[in-house]
TrEMBL record:
Source organism, top-level taxon: Bacteria
Pfam family of the protein (one): Glyco_hydro_2_C
Cleaved signal peptide residues: none
Domain Glycoside hydrolase family 2 catalytic: 319-453
Lineage of the species this protein comes from: Bacteria, Thermotogati, Deinococcota, Deinococci, Deinococcales
Protein name, as recorded: Beta-galactosidase
InterPro entries referenced in this protein's UniProt entry, alphabetically: Beta-gal/glucu_dom_sf (IPR036156), Galactose-bd-like_sf (IPR008979), GH (IPR017853), GH2_Domain-Containing (IPR051913), Glyco_hydro_2_cat (IPR006103), Glyco_hydro_2_N (IPR006104)
The keyword NADP appears for this protein: no
Presence of the UniProt keyword tRNA processing in the record: no
The family this protein is said to belong to: Belongs to the glycosyl hydrolase 2 family.
Length: 611
C-alpha cells in the first residue's frame, strides 16, 4: 500500500499536484465583497490550516463569517491540458459555503463544511499557463442550523465546544484526467457469495468501443482480471473470487483489526486496445452487522473496544497533516483499542486510509446542527448523503451515527417531527448503505437503531456492574433507569433484543497537570491508571454489553479526560494502559459487589455513583 496517502485514497491517479502552501488571504467581516475584483488582500495564510489555528500563520480566533483566499498557480507546458485531457480542481473540505473562481470565472459552489467537491477548470484556463484561484468561504458562527459538530457558536469556547474551523481545512489539489474518465468507485464485498461488487461511474462521452478492466491482487497474488464492455456511464459489476473453501483458508483473506488484509485494485478504462484511464484503489473482504445481542465482524461476535476521538490538534484544530493522522491511529491501537468513534467530525479520508491499512474500526458521526428547522434538515441530509457516499467503501467504517444525544432534535420526547427526522435519517442511511449498522441517535432517546448506544458516565465500577453485569440487569437498566437522565427509548420503540454498547463512559479528568471537573479528577498518573483499570475491568465483566467506547482518546481543550495529552503523549505508561483496555486487570468481585483496589487507600478519591 501507499506510504503516504493520496487525498482520495480509494481513487488515485499519478497525475496530481498539491496546492497546499501560502495563499493570499482577507477577512470580510461584513460580507461586502462579492466578486474577486472587489477583494483587498492584506495578509497570507498557510493552506489547508484554518485561520483560527497556529499553523495557518494567523491564529485569529475571533468570529469571521466571510473569508477570501487567492493563489496564482503556474502550469508548465507539460501540465497544460492538451486535446482530450481535462484539469480538475479538488477541495477536500471548506467550511461552510464555498464559492470558487478561476481566472475570474465562476466555476463552482458547494455547501457543507465536511465533504469534498471539485470543478472542471479546463475552460477557465483558456489555454494559458496561469491559474488564479479565488475562494470565498462563508461560515456564520451564529448559525445553529448549520452542521458544525463541536465548533462553538460563541466567541470563546464554552463547556465542551471548541474553537471554530473556518474556510479551507483539508487538501486542495489539481488533477489531470482524460476527457472520458472514471469519476467514482464503490466497493461492496459479500462473504456469502465470496465476491466483490464494483459500482463504477464515468464522466465524459461514452462510446461502444469502451470497456472496463479490473485487476485484483492479494499480497501480490492475482485474484481476478475482469474485463467487460461499457454501454453507458454507470456500471455495476460482480467479480467472483477464488474460494479457498475451508473456513481456515477463508480466514486469511478477511479484513479485521487484528489482520487488516486489503485487496489492491487497478481499474482501467480502455477504448479498443488503447488505454484511456487508470486509477488505483483497494477494498477488502469484510462484513459487519448485528445478531441479537452481538455486534458481528465477518459473521462472528466481536467485542468492541472503542475510544472517543474528537480529532482536534493544538496547533491545527480540526485540520491535520498525514503524520498526525497516522499517529492517532497508531496510538489508538497501541492503547489496546480495536476501534474509534470519530465524534462530531467526518474523518479526513487519509485518516480512514490509515485505519484501513493498520486495522482500526470506525464509528462515523455526522457533525450536529443545534437548532431544528426545515433548513437545518435540508442541510444535514445533503451533507450526510455526501459523507456516506464518500466513505462507504472504506473497510474500517463499521457503523453510521447520524445523531448524538438528541443534538439538533432537542424535543424528541414531545415533538413527532423530531422523532420522524431521526427515523428518516436512520432509514436513509440504511438505503444509501445497507451493509452496516446505523445508530439513529446515540446515547439515549432511541426511536430507530440497530445498536443501543448508552452514555453512562458513572465512575463507580460497582454501579456499572449493577447496571450491565448480566443480561437481566441490562434489560432492567434499559427499561427502568436513565443513566444520562434521559429515557433510553421513546414512542414505543424497545431495543431489548439489540446489541448494547456503552458508547460513552469514563471521562476521568487529568487534574494532576490542570484543574479537572469536580468528582472526576485523578490525583496523579498512578491514580489515573488504577482508576481506568478498575473501570475497564468492570466493563469487561459486564455480560450485557457488546462493547464500549471510552471517553476519550486525547485531551481536547477544556475536556481534559483523555488517555493521551493533546500532544498525543500518554498520561501513564502506555503498556499498562493497554493492558487495562484489553482487560481484565485489577480489582476483585466480592459478595458486597465490586471492590476497586484503590478504594481502600487512605485519602482516596470518591467516585460518584452518577455524573
Amino acid at each position: 500500500m501507499l506510504t503516504s496517502p493520496h487525498p482520495t485514497p480509494l481513487l488515485r491517479r499519478s497525475e496530481w499536484r498539491d496546492l497546499g502552501g501560502t495563499w493570499a488571504f482577507a477577512f470580510d467581516p461584513q460580507g461586502r465583497w462579492r466578486v474577486p475584483g472587489d477583494v483587498r488582500y492584506d495578509r497570507s495564510i498557510e493552506v489547508p490550516y484554518p485561520p483560527e489555528s497556529q499553523a495557518s500563520g494567523l491564529h485569529d480566533t475571533g468570529p469571521h463569517p466571510v473569508v477570501w483566499y487567492e493563489r496564482t498557480v503556474h502550469l508548465s507546458p507539460e501540465e497544460r491540458p492538451l486535446a482530450g485531457r481535462r484539469l480538475l480542481l479538488h477541495f477536500g473540505a471548506v467550511d461552510y459555503a464555498a464559492t470558487v473562481w478561476v481566472n475570474g470565472q465562476h466555476v463552482t459552489e458547494h455547501r457543507g463544511g465536511h465533504t469534498p467537491f471539485h470543478a472542471d477548470v479546463t475552460e477557465a484556463l483558456g489555454g494559458g499557463g496561469d491559474l488564479t484561484l479565488t475562494v470565498r468561504a462563508q461560515d456564520d458562527p451564529r448559525d445553529l442550523t448549520q452542521p458544525r459538530g463541536k465548533q462553538d457558536w460563541l466567541d470563546e469556547p464554552h463547556v465542551m465546544w471548541h474553537w471554530r474551523t473556518t474556510g479551507i481545512w483539508q487538501p486542495v489539489w489539481l488533477e489531470w484526467v482524460p476527457e472520458t474518465h472514471l469519476s467514482a468507485l464503490t466497493w461492496t464485498p459479500s462473504l456469502d457469495r465470496w465476491d466483490l461488487t464494483l459500482d463504477a461511474r464515468l464522466t465524459g462521452p461514452v462510446d461502444p468501443a469502451l470497456s472496463l478492466r479490473t485487476v485484483l491482487t492479494l499480497d501480490g497474488r492475482l485474484l481476478a482480471d475482469d474485463r467487460c464492455v461499457l454501454v453507458d456511464a454507470h456500471l455495476v459489476r460482480r467479480i467472483g473470487l477464488p474460494d479457498p473453501g475451508v473456513e481456515q483458508g477463508r480466514d486469511g483473506w478477511l479484513w479485521s483489526p487484528e489482520a487488516p488484509q486489503l485487496i489492491e485494485a487497478t481499474v482501467e478504462l480502455w477504448r479498443g486496445e488503447t488505454l484511456v484511464d487508470r486509477v488505483h484503489s483497494y477494498t477488502a473482504l469484510r462484513s459487519v452487522g448485528v445478531d441479537g445481542r452481538h455486534f458481528l465482524l465477518n459473521g462472528r461476535p466481536y467485542f468492541l473496544r472503542l475510544a472517543l476521538d474528537q480529532g482536534y490538534w493544538p496547533g491545527t484544530l480540526l485540520a491535520a497533516d498525514d503524520a498526525a493522522l497516522l499517529l492517532d491511529v497508531e496510538r489508538a491501537k497501541a492503547l489496546g483499542f480495536n476501534g474509534v468513534r470519530q465524534h462530531q467530525k467526518l474523518a479526513d479520508p487519509r485518516s480512514l486510509y490509515w485505519c484501513d491499512v493498520l486495522g482500526l474500526l470506525v464509528w462515523a458521526d455526522m457533525p450536529s446542527h443545534y437548532a431544528f428547522s426545515t433548513e437545518a434538515v435540508e442541510r444535514l441530509v445533503a451533507e450526510w448523503t455526501e459523507a456516506v457516499r464518500r466513505d462507504r467503501s472504506h473497510p474500517c467504517v463499521a457503523a453510521w451515527v447520524p445523531f448524538n444525544e438528541s443534538w439538533g432534535v432537542p424535543d424528541l420526547p414531545t415533538n413527532p417531527a423530531h422523532r420522524d427526522y431521526v427515523r428518516a435519517l436512520y432509514h436513509l442511511t440504511k438505503t444509501l448503505d445497507p451493509t452496516r449498522p446505523v445508530i439513529g441517535n446515540d446515547g439515549w432517546e432511541h426511536v430507530a437503531t440497530d445498536i443501543v448506544g448508552v452514555h453512562d458516565y458513572s465512575l463507580d465500577p460497582a454501579v456499572l456492574l449493577g447496571r450491565y453485569g448480566t443480561k437481566a440487569a441490562t434489560e432492567a437498566t434499559l427499561g427502568d433507569e436513565r443513566p444520562g437522565l434521559r429515557p433510553l427509548f421513546l414512542d414505543g420503540f424497545v431495543g431489548l433484543s439489540h446489541p448494547v454498547v456503552l458508547s460513552e463512559f469514563g471521562g476521568i479528568d487529568d487534574a494532576f497537570s490542570t484543574a479537572g471537573a469536580p468528582g472526576r479528577q485523578a490525583r496523579d498518573a498512578e491514580h489515573l491508571l488504577v482508576w481506568y483499570a478498575e473501570l475497564l475491568a468492570a466493563v469487561h465483566a459486564c455480560r450485557g454489553l457488546a462493547g464500549f467506547c471510552y471517553t476519550q482518546l486525547t485531551d481536547t481543550f477544556y475536556e481534559r479526560n483523555g488517555l493521551l495529552h493533546a500532544d498525543r503523549t500518554p498520561k501513564a505508561p502506555l503498556e499498562a494502559l493497554r493492558a487495562a483496555t484489553l482487560g481484565p486487570l485489577a480489582g476483585t468481585l466480592t459478595a458486597q459487589g465490586y471492590l476497586p483496589r484503590w478504594a481502600a487507600r487512605p485519602g482516596r478519591q470518591e467516585a460518584p455513583a452518577m455524573i
